[in-house]
# Entry
Amino acid sequence: MSGASWFADLPKDVLAELLGEDAGYFLRGARLLESGRSEWQDYEVWETPRFGKLFRLDGCFMTSERDEFHYHENLIHVPGVAHPGLRRALLIGGGDGGSAEELLKYPGIERIVIAELDAKVVDIARRYLDAVHHGALDDPRVEIRIGDGMAHVCEHAPATGERYDLIVLDLTDPIGPAEALYTADFFAACKALLAEGGALTLHIGTPVFQPERVRELLARLRRVFARVRPYFLYIPLYGSLWGMACASDTLDPAALDANEVDRRLAERAIRELQHFNGAVHCAQFALPNHLRALLA
# Structure
C-alpha cells in the first residue's frame, strides 16, 4: 500500500510503506539506484543493507535479492509439487523472473509464457535483479509477451488453443492496472485455459491488515473453482503474514503429507530451495482459529 503523502518528510535513506490505515514499516540506509515512470507506474530500484537490491512499484515493495525466495518458492512449489507433471505454465505479471526461475526447476517443464504489462519491469530485472531470476528471463523455454494479461487470457490464448498446467497470477495488489485481473470473470477465463488437472495460483494479501480483501478474493475463487486452498506465510519484505491460494477443480495440494512432498522434490531433483520443504508445505495450510473464522 502506497504511503507517499504520509512519508514525505522522512529522510532520503528511509523507505516506508503503509500496510493499513494506521500501520506500516520502514527500512533505513537505502540508496537509490534508479527511479522513473513507465507508461503504467512509478518504479524505483534501491540498494539496502537488509535486502540488497530492492524493487518498488508505485511506492510498494515488490521483490528483493535476499528475500524473494519466501514469495516465489511458495507461490510456485505449493501447486507445482502437487501436480503430477508440469509441462506448460502461464505467468500473468512476473516480469521480474522469480516465478519463472522456480518453474524451470521442474524437469518436465517445456514452455513458460510471461504476459507482463510493463516492459520496464523486465528491463529493470535484467539490469538489476539477476539474483532474483538467475537468467530465467533468457531461458529458451521462456517466452515474454509484453502486453495486457487480460487480452492474453481472454483473446490470444483462446484463439490459439493454448492450454496450461499452471497459471500464476504474479501481480501487484488488486488496485490500479491489476484490479481487473482479480475478478471472478477473469478467474473463470483463466480456468478455461487450464489443461486437465491444472491449477491457478496467486497471492491474496495480508489477513492482518487487509482481511476483507482476503475474504473477498477467496469468495470469488470459490465461485469459479471446486477446490480453493488458501495458505499463509510470513514474508519479511511485505512486513506481515501473507496469503496465497491454489484453485483447481481437481488438484489439492493440501492432500499431500510432508514425506510425500519431500519425496517428490527429491524425485524431480528440485534443489536449491531456501524456504520450501515438506514440513513447510503442510504447515502453511494449518489455519489458526482467527483465520478459520475469517475465511469461513
Summary: The first strand starts at residue 15 and ends at 20. DSSP finds ten helices and 13 strands in the chain.
